Amino acid sequence: MGLTPAQPEVERSILLTTVDKMKRWAQKSSIWPATFGLACCAIEMMSVTNSRYDLARFGAEVFRASPRQADLMIVAGRVSQKMAPVLRTIWEQMPEPKWVISMGACASSGGVFDNYAIIQGVDHVVPVDVYVPGCPPTPEALLFGIIKLQEKITLGLPPKYLELAPEPGTKGAWR
Ligand code: SF4
After folding, report:
1. How is the chain split among helix, strand and coil, in percent rounded to 5?
2. Ligand 1 atom index nearest CA of 77
3. Domain 31-158 indexed as CATH 2.60.120.280
4. Which pTM does this prediction carry?
5. Where are the beta strands (DSSP E) in the chain?
6. What is the pLDDT of residues 151-160, one digit of tens each?
7. Alpha carbon of 102 to ligand 1 centroid (Å)
8. pLDDT tier, 98 (very low <50, low <70, confident <90, very high otherwise)
9. Atom of ligand 1 nearest to the CA of 44
10. Which terminal CB of the chain, N or C, has fewer other CB atoms within 10 Å?
């Protein structure tokens, strides 16, 4: 059966996909981080929204002052014992699905602050999806971390808290 004249134009104009792929594309293209900085790393985090780094290119520049409107927590800086329950509460207030980026040596492992006052890794408090190394990580490194998170979302990999979730009906650390 031959092509009608209109068929090549139709083939160029129609994009076939699945609802699931569309959903993942929309999610990865509209990540809204919570406005939440803890120490020096936060200055680098703020830099990613300026014109030099332009986080808007990745659809993730809309930092929200309310955790109810955010789906990404960037833990930028050391987490003190006093701040840990506050951080956990903010994370719990974020709607699902949600993701966490641990930015810098302090957030990821306590960094140079190997003492009783600092949590030795924010994964003791919230499940972490992406770690960004450095002290401080450059804005480019944070952008790279956000791109890695977008790749995970595009591939359909579950957020870390779902990966760690216990079987339904059992009690677990993250629920
Ligand atoms: S990793 Fe370095 S820059 Fe970041 S909070 Fe710790 S000391 Fe500050």
Report:
1. 40, 10, 50
2. 5
3. no
4. 0.88
5. 72-76, 99-103, 130-132
6. 999 999 999 9
7. 12
8. very high
9. 3
10. N
